[in-house]
Amino acid sequence: MTTIDLCIKSNHVLNVFSRLFEPNVLWINDGQIIATGESSTFHARRTLDYADQYIVPGFIDAHVHIESSLLTPSELAKVILPQGTTSIFTDPHEIANVAGANGIQSMIDDARQSLLDVYTMLPSSVPCTPFEDSGATLTVKELKPFYQNPTVRGLAEVMDYPAVSSNQPDMIAKLNDCLQAGRQIDGHGSGLSRHQLDVYRQHQISTDHEATTIQQIQERINEGFYVFLREGTVERDLENTVGAVNESNASRFAFCTDDKLVDSLLNEGGINDCIRKAIHHGLRPETAYTMASFNAAQAHQTPFIGALNPNYQADIVVLDDPYDVKIHQVIKKGHLISNHDFNTHPLSFAKNTMNFALSPADLQLRLNSATANIIQVILNHIETEHLVEPVSIHNGNFCPDPSNDQLKMVIVERHHHTGKIGKAIVKGFNLTHGAVASSIAHDSHNIIAVGTNDADLFAAIQHLQKVGGGITIFANHHELATLPLQIGGLMSNLSYKETAQKLNAITAAYQSISRPIAFNPFITLSFLALPVIPTLKLTARGLYDFDQQKFIPIEASIN
């Protein structure tokens, strides 16, 4: 008889291959399931009998930007491991846009402190378009050496469709290097037609997480994509898309959070929240838990995680209630997770990433017409609408009008002291006075700010430079609250609890200068700088129209 580490018994063990719960026994040694079923061959040092609980594989987040949580990888693990997420596939393109290959390596190194399996998908588009102003440029030369690391599982969300369709050499080399390394390629199909999706598939891009409607889901499934149903802090897409899943096509779906702040993770959860909502909208629990584990591993061509079978890693979640995702115990590589498993050291990042100069006059928005193209925020989505409205002008300059929710937005290039400043008019933030500024602005992460007056805008932006990046709220020339993000202007070097507290403080400060809103203003603001998402966005070079694929003037002509 062979002595092994652990035996787990239950009347309800999920078989992801049949999508059924069944009585079973799991025999675990050295972090791996070595056998299942009743056996006289093994003797376990410890036996756990979960007769009435439900046993499922550890949850897998199929696509997440760790930086969006505002936490380092090791600090994020302290939040999501107890929630049942035992593996994540992360795209560190936020820190890569600020600090290049060194930023990616710092994330990989920090993740090693945690029991959480952090699989890296290499940023494919840094910058995301040729006309962006990021802190770094990642060519195929910088990316290729990373494939020697077994935790690097592929190439992350390819968002530069023109580079793919025109066979731009550096992009095609990135795709080929990934495939030659035996890894897989993630897509980013926001706004793409069926024909354009087909072009992605021709280049063996195999996943997408940007579908927001049933029709978009169906187009991706018909093209052979794996589809990641997304539920982030503002990317609330799951309710609109989960209806596309049925027992015939479920194997093509997984879950992801993409961008989720630490307070949302603590209050709602991550992948556990996706599962709960999917079940609430009609999915069988067996199907939802399979999507949350095995399907994600299959989409990323990562063997031996995501199932409760021999040769699979012993990543296990024990549930008291499978319908409400009530977690009894999390087991990672055969190790029972407790609150004593999280001793980590802060990520060290000394690079100065606030390199700009600004004067109050730089914020003036000159207009030659009293009719303007305006960015309209869409509630809990990262896409925008294109409005054309009359605006107020004084001495040739745009005057924000809080009563009509017409606010000034600016983007200040912060990486190379270029002096580039983009300006636009935005609706949806409902500020009554004051301003908010942030060093999080996807994907180049320049300074982005929105406000009711230039004085508060200027003060808020200058304060970010002083503290090394973050999110700050100003009103009447005074700081109301600040969340410093000294790691690249993206992540906090504090604990998740301290970071969440400061995030709550700036949320309260924002609420004090605004009318009620039903979305997170900080992530929403950050995505108004991303020109690969429809429709109107602002970069440091000006107002960009995704539909026309070009920069447009703020002044609008009326036909």
TrEMBL record:
Reaction(s) catalysed by this chain's protein: adenine + H2O + H(+) = hypoxanthine + NH4(+)
Annotated SUPFAM superfamilies: Composite domain of metallo-dependent hydrolases (SSF51338), Metallo-dependent hydrolases (SSF51556)
Lipid metabolism as UniProt keyword: no
Gene3D superfamilies: Metal-dependent hydrolases, Urease, subunit C, domain 1
Residues of the Amidohydrolase-related domain: 54-336
A GO MF term: adenine deaminase activity
Residue ranges of domain Adenine deaminase C-terminal in the record: 382-549
The protein's Enzyme Commission number: 3.5.4.2
UniProt keyword annotation of 4Fe-4S present: no
Primary enzyme class: hydrolase
Cofactor(s) of this protein: Mn(2+)
GO biological process: adenine catabolic process
Family annotation (InterPro entries): Adenine_deam (IPR006679), Adenine_deam_C (IPR026912), Amidohydro-rel (IPR006680), Metal-dep_hydrolase_composite (IPR011059), Metal_Hydrolase (IPR032466)
Annotated coiled-coil segments of the chain: none
Stored Pfam families: Adenine_deam_C (PF13382), Amidohydro_1 (PF01979)
Keywords: Hydrolase, Manganese
PANTHER family referenced in this protein's UniProt entry, alphabetically: ADENINE DEAMINASE, N-ACETYLGLUCOSAMINE-6-PHOSPHATE DEACETYLASE
Recorded family membership: Belongs to the metallo-dependent hydrolases superfamily. Adenine deaminase family.
The protein's name in its UniProt record: Adenine deaminase
Organism: Ligilactobacillus aviarius
